[in-house]
Amino acid sequence: MNDTASPNAHAVIATDGDGFALHAEDRNAMLAERDHYEQPQAACIEALKLVQRRHGWVPDGAIPVIAETLGLGVADVEGVATFYSLIFRQPVGRHVILLCDSSSCFLTGFEGLREALGEHLGVAFGQTTLDGRFTLLPVCCLGACDRGPALMIDDDTFGPITADDLDELLEAYP
Ligand code: FES
To answer: Global pTM?
Structure first.
């Protein structure tokens, strides 16, 4: 057979029984991160973020693959993945809206904003819009307490946000 395979033909190199495939670039980045620290556990969160960046979320099948790559136990990786609310364990929309429900934002209008967002998107916390565009999630303090109520869309933080801002704000995330 004529070998006309592209350079990416071997990009997927580590898989698990559930069909999860770890991209070679991500594996290399994980190994580099692991070598950067004395304890491989320190590389775990970054490894999870690498998978999430590529796939949009972290499927169950990624956990044993990450564990094997970093030389950690599956339970250790699962524990980290479960602990961090910004690691998504279910498929999410194209954009994730994280609405801060911590004290400063709670006092400056969280509830009204949650209601307005819910009406605007037609979803409650934990749900994704029917068109797959947005997932709405609560989150602990975003570090923008002086600008509450605050929210984050993908990697962008906004605040203070009112119901009147939502049209223009969401329009920027097609
Ligand atoms: S309490 Fe909302 S950003 Fe800190």
So the answer is: 0.80
